[in-house]
Specification:
This protein is an alpha+beta fold. The chain has helices at residues 11-14, 33-37, 69-78, 81-87, 100-107, 109-112, 118-131, 135-155, 165-174, 207-230, 236-255, 265-272, 278-298, 307-325; strands at residues 2-9, 23-30, 44-47, 62-68, 178-184, 190-196, 199-202. It is built from 14 helices and seven strands.
């Protein structure tokens, strides 16, 4: 395989590796001339130890994932975190000398990244909703539950949310974390939804179903509040990823760069080991979400990646492989 870059990834890149850490390898490769001409290039080539269902990696395990040049640049243009982390990886994690093609990509990184890196923002928002315990979210869920419970008692189990559209519109206009959104259906006809703390309920859903969804949300926040007090039942690895991604996003939007190893690696490792109280981490995720969204809005990153440059890089690399294979 003609690799243009191969690197240690994950904890070995972030600076959070321990003796128990497995090894995650990432790379980018140039397809063979015949595969290019026959249009059978594999976007991704993976290799890992066969494991039974539910089995996790162990120390000494090696997982490899290599992207074709075209696939990697597409991921970078989309603002995917894996591609961005690879772009800014230092030479210290490289397992082979990077080729001139990789150096070309790095040198033009400022033209290949853009505000499309909002996948960072989306991830932060998901994690804040999943792990956060902010009072305004709890209050929003309870307000929606109260409205839907009253409507169900008045209009019956089978009544639709659309029957209280005006009341829901008033709630969305006054309550934080509550909104009305239109989503395309299979027939391309927008369908209005009630959104509360990133949970969406169709206006065509029954009041009973809507009330049950809101009730589960309130109960979930209640469970997290207890976890915060007891510091138990927490997915610490997921929490550490949420904080890491949030901090990476903040640096990217503010400076156009991400520093590796992470200057705050000890903090991330402390969260992963459960050494930081759940409530403290949840509050950090909430604050990161606000900071990242503000930084994304004010960022000087270009609105779109340079698609012409991407096409030129792929064309030149593929042409070279074809000439070499002729």
């Amino acid at each position: 395989m003609d690799l243009i870059v191969k690197m240690r990834f994950g904890s070995h890149l972030y600076g959070t590796a321990t003796p128990e850490s497995d090894l995650d390898l990432k790379g980018v490769y140039l397809p063979e001339a015949q595969d290019i001409l026959l249009q059978r290039v594999k976007e991704t080539v993976t290799s890992n130890r066969t494991k039974v269902a539910g089995e996790k990696n162990e120390a000494g395990d090696v997982d490899s994932e290599f992207y074709s040049l075209q696939r990697y640049l597409d991921l970078l243009a989309e603002g995917q975190t894996v591609a961005l982390d690879m772009l800014f990886a230092p030479d210290s994690v490289m397992t082979i000398p990077p080729s001139p093609w990789w150096r070309d990509i790095q040198a033009n990184g400022h033209r290949l990244i853009s505000k499309r890196a909002t996948s960072f923002v989306q991830y932060c928002r998901q994690q804040a909703n999943k792990y956060g315990i902010k009072g305004s979210r709890v209050a929003a869920a309870r307000k929606v539950l109260a409205v839907l419970t009253t409507a169900q008692e008045r209009l019956g189990n089978t009544g639709k949310l659309e029957l209280i559209a005006l009341q829901l519109a008033d709630l969305a206009a006054t309550a934080a974390h509550v909104a009305l959104v239109d989503l395309s259906s299979s027939g391309d006809r927008p369908v209005r939804h009630l959104e509360v703390c990133d949970r969406k309920i169709s206006f065509s859903a029954s009041l009973k179903m809507g009330r049950e969804i809101a009730e589960r949300l309130v109960n979930e926040y209640g469970r997290r509040a207890l976890q915060a007090e007891r510091n138990e039942g927490v997915d610490w690895k997921a929490l550490s990823h949420a904080v890491r991604i949030g901090r990476e996003a903040l640096e990217l939007f503010q400076s156009g760069h991400i520093t590796f190893p992470l200057p705050y690696a000890d903090h991330i490792l402390g969260i992963k080991r459960g050494l930081v109280p759940y409530k403290t981490v949840a509050m950090e995720i909430e604050q990161l979400l606000e900071d990242v969204e503000a930084a994304a809005s004010a960022s000087s990153l270009p609105e779109e990646p340079d698609q012409a440059l991407i096409e030129d890089l792929v064309t030149r690399a593929h042409m070279q492989k074809i000439r070499e294979g002729a």
